[in-house]
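Subject: Sanity check before I submit

Could someone independently write out the structure tokens for this chain? I want to compare against mine line by line before I put it in a report. The sequence has 506 residues.
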Amino acid sequence: MSKALLVAGTTSDAGKSVVTAGICRWLARQGVRVAPFKAQNMSLNSFVTADGAEIGRAQAMQAQAARVEPEAAMNPVLLKPGADGRSQVVLLGRPVAEVGALDYRERKPVLLERALECLADLRDRYDVVVCEGAGSPAEINLRDRDIANMGLATAAGLPVVVVGDIDRGGVFAAMYGTLALLSAEDQRLVAGWFVNKFRGDARLLAPGLEMLRELTGRPVLGTLPMLSGLWLDAEDSLDLSTVVQRGDTAAPVGADVLRVAVVRFPRLSNFTDVDALAQEPGVLVRWATRPEELADADLVVLPGTRATVADLAWLRERGMEAPLRARAAAGLPVLGVCGGYQMLGRTIVDEVESKAGAVDGLGLLPTRVVFGAEKVLARPVGEAYGERVEGYEIHHGVVSVEGGDEPFLDGCRVGAVWGTTWHGALENDGFRRALLREVAGMAGRDFTPAPDTSFAALREERLDRLGDLIEEHADTDALWKLIEGGAPGGLPILPPGAPLGVATHE
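---
Independent answer below. Compare away.
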């Protein structure tokens, strides 16, 4: 069986996904056949594999970093939170249940078995598997049913490295505390630390790193500098705080900047759809939660959502329906994607997700949406503006167009209002440029998309930056020894609650 490693974190958003992707790219550059793995992911950003399975977008990104095709085994359990405190459980790419937190807890032993089967399968087929944890491994109230952190590591015998975010402060306390809260059995697998998002003078940090090593008996395997502007498949809404407003620093080709307002629904999903817009020189992308934030936008985007009916009600409560109607009447562009497209129609009939029955939509497109029990998962290919377009579909709502429309991918268009169920369409360069040219014309902006912006090349460049991060700032020899040989024996065990520096060897 092949070698493997688990990347855990002191907190959510510590940088586990980035470090995992960086290790994958570093290994792939050396000709190592490597696969990413995350036993359990909670995210509303997902992706459809070539064979029609739904997995987390972060694992699809990590597979790209590893230069392999993403597959369901790389993320066997995906949880998609809904509007009612319950989550949809996606097992091996297919939805199997809607559960609350306590119901899900009872399913975990079986899910751990499936996760271990998938991990063993990947280890049989790849040279190295780089696993990513979830949240923190020191959630002591959840440890007895953990399937993504130390529960997985102990069951599979994985060495563990822990990533801490120094930018938010308290990283040494978080690392020491994480180790001290683990059982002796779990501590034996924790072999080192990554300090992430560092900015400043490394000479000031060095004494702290040495003290951490002395206190825990574990080395810091890398101090990774803060990297801005990555925007690689953010996993959850925590990441939105870093991208509330973004735009390429390059000057626009024309005289004007094109302003895009994206409605930030409470349960928005696949918000990575707008990443490609933000990479266009001269395009400014902002999140909007108030009607006044739509006022100066040249394009308003209604993105996907896990709770179409609930988020439509939120949009109305926030007073955003009237501005959207006014925009459509004035011929100003509005684009709806998946759940956002469903909202733009006349009627939504939902006995599945919200169980609200028939609900009036915004009435800006001649469509009727009926939610079905079966989830649509597909990788469609089509054409728009004379350009080839590839995308992916993830939805329960089936949209029927009721005449008087202009086809737009699988959806429709009326005047300046477009709607489609296809995620990822804006990543197609020719299509994106053509749409932006029309948007600019409708908005009266002197804006021309840059002719040479390649979103795929930009992603590759940023994945290479992650590989550089590991290669240039991590102790790769020590990292490889862990991957190859597992956690070293004789690591100190910190008794929970012990005074600083008190460790025992067993």
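---
OP: Matches mine. For the report I'm noting this point. The chain has two domains: 3-231+460-485, 251-449.
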